[in-house]
């Protein structure tokens, strides 16, 4: 870091999970770049950004993974970016049923979270934003799910072929590929994480985790194990949920040569090369539907009504091993969810891609002062700092003093009490960045994805 002026941007994209978000925001970036705007993509725990005590970016609009309230805004922006407007991509448009009508629910927004512009995939979420959250209707933008654009005909060539993908993982290309898209969390969540989830989603979440998630996962893995042992002509790919660590699945992988745990690549990449798709209490079936792949819903244990996704409640479900085994041999089959129900949540538009709708909307947000966040919200969303930290932030506004501060901070021989909390914070940031290195991106990777997108779209008339 240095005392240089902030880099000027029109849009700064901030993401959390690479496999869930990066391709999608690269598609948005592609279109905005094509229109002549200045864009950049950064991970939410980027080390350089997290250490900054003054802005290194000035973005007219930040485009966020989520903005539930003041704390999530601070988590995204820290001190490294100055901005006037914000778009919440709201990657979790679908919430637990018990929160659908609860205005106090964590995912129904508070504080600055009610002021940002919010992307809605479809009409169902827009109604919730209006009726339950009480958002300004002008700040709810129904554009569909940009990630689904990769399953349109004009972008089908973006993904690797079955042969290209399987060769990367040393999997026999002649085998049938059955995908299980895990809806589960990690096997061993610590008490602090469980408490956090219960604070957000109610004390019943603890039971949902232990009695539904863990037990369902064990049963499903047992079923898959039986099939893999008897059917050597297939390979089951276990695709973990983002950030899921599954010791159960990894143990089975060591036992079976036709069962693989692979968290790399987007879920859509695996869907398009798979012969069949399986999942549980998850919206993955929508990607399968748009990819024209059969998707089976596996529910060996029924979750409580509070935690089962609303659009899954009327689905055709596999509840026994016999039904699961039958599905392995089945040719064709009836899709478990009705198309009209999918459309209410995802607003499927076969004419105009969602990434184009997003770019149109982003231009409107950029140009219209109506979407500017209030000075009061921008001044108050951060947690109040101690006197020492506030002094450092004030000092850092002057470039010459900022550079001196950095030299003092990096010189371990100087043991001033005022510097120690900042040094401790830097070590914590370094540990976080190290642990999340697999989520980080860089300009080379981003440009590579954008170039692959451009190869598909530049010569096509949309």
SSE topology:
Layout: E1 7-15, H1 18-34, E2 39-43, H2 47-51, E3 57-64, H3 70-77, E4 81-88, E5 117-120, H4 123-133, E6 140-142, H5 162-168, E7 176-181, H6 191-201, H7 204-230, E8 234-239, H8 247-255, E9 259-261, H9 267-273, E10 276-279, H10 284-290, E11 295-298, E12 317-318, H11 321-329, H12 339-346, H13 354-367, H14 375-380, H15 387-395, H16 399-410, H17 420-435, H18 443-457
Parallel strand pairs: 1-2, 1-3, 3-4, 4-5, 5-6, 7-8, 7-10, 8-9, 10-11, 11-12
What does this structure look like?
The chain has helices at 18-34, 47-51, 70-77, 123-133, 162-168, 191-201, 204-230, 247-255, 267-273, 284-290, 321-329, 339-346, 354-367, 375-380, 387-395, 399-410, 420-435, 443-457, and strands spanning 7-15, 39-43, 57-64, 81-88, 117-120, 140-142, 176-181, 234-239, 259-261, 276-279, 295-298, 317-318. It is α/β, with parallel strands linked by helices and 462 residues long. Helix 1 crosses helix 13 (354-367) and helix 1 packs across helix 18.
- Element order: H for helix, E for strand: EHEHEHEEHEHEHHEHEHEHEEHHHHHHHH
The number of helical elements comes to 18
Radius of gyration: 23 Å
Unreliable spans: none
Beta-sheet strand percentage? 5-15%
- Please give the order of strands in the largest beta sheet: 2-1-3-4-5-6
Percent helix, as a range, is 40-55%
Please identify the structural class as seen in this structure.
Answer: alpha/beta
Distance between the termini: 42 Å
Q: Report the biggest beta sheet as strand number plus sense, adding barrel if it closes.
A: 6 strands, parallel
């Amino acid at each position: 870091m240095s005392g240089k002026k902030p880099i000027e941007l029109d849009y700064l994209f901030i993401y959390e999970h690479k496999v869930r978000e990066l391709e999608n925001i690269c598609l948005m970036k592609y279109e905005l770049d094509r229109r002549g705007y200045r864009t950049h993509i950064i991970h939410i725990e980027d080390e350089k950004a997290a250490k900054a005590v003054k802005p290194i970016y000035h973005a007219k609009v930040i485009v966020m993974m989520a903005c539930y309230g003041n704390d999530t805004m601070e988590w995204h922006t820290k001190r490294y970016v100055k901005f006037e407007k914000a778009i919440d991509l709201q990657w979790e448009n679908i919430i637990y049923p018990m929160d659908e009508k609860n205005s106090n629910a964590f995912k129904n927004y508070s504080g600055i979270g009610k002021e940002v512009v919010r992307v809605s995939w479809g009409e169902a979420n827009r109604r919730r934003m209006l009726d339950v959250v009480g958002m300004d209707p002008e700040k709810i933008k129904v554009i569909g799910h940009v990630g689904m654009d990769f399953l349109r005909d004009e972008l089908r060539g973006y993904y690797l072929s079955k042969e290209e993908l399987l060769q990367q993982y040393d999997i026999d290309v002649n085998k049938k590929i059955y995908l299980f898209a895990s809806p589960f969390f990690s096997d061993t969540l610590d008490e602090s994480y469980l408490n956090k989830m219960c604070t957000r989603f109610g004390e019943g979440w603890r039971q949902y985790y232990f009695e539904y998630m863990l037990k369902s996962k064990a049963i499903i893995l047992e079923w898959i194990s039986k099939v893999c042992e008897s059917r050597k002509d297939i390979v089951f790919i276990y695709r973990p949920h983002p950030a899921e660590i599954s010791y159960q699945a990894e143990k089975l992988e060591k036992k079976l040569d036709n069962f693989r745990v692979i968290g790399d690549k987007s879920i859509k990449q695996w869907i398009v090369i798979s012969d069949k798709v399986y999942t549980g209490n998850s919206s993955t079936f929508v990607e399968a539907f748009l990819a024209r792949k059969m998707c089976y819903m596996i529910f060996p244990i029924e979750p409580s009504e509070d935690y089962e996704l609303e659009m899954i409640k009327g689905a055709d479900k596999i509840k026994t091993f016999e039904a699961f085994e039958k599905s392995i041999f089945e040719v064709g089959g009836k899709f478990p969810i009705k198309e009209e129900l999918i459309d209410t949540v995802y607003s499927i538009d076969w004419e105009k891609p969602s990434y184009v709708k997003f770019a149109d909307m982003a231009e409107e947000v950029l140009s219209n002062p109506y979407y500017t966040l209030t000075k009061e919200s921008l001044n108050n969303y951060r947690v109040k700092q101690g006197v020492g930290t506030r002094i450092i932030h004030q000092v850092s506004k002057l470039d010459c003093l900022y550079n001196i501060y950095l030299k003092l901070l990096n010189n371990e021989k100087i043991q001033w009490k005022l510097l120690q909390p900042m040094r401790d914070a830097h070590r914590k940031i370094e540990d976080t960045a190290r642990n999340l290195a697999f989520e980080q991106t860089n300009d080379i990777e981003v440009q590579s994805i954008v170039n692959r997108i451009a190869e598909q779209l530049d010569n096509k008339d949309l």
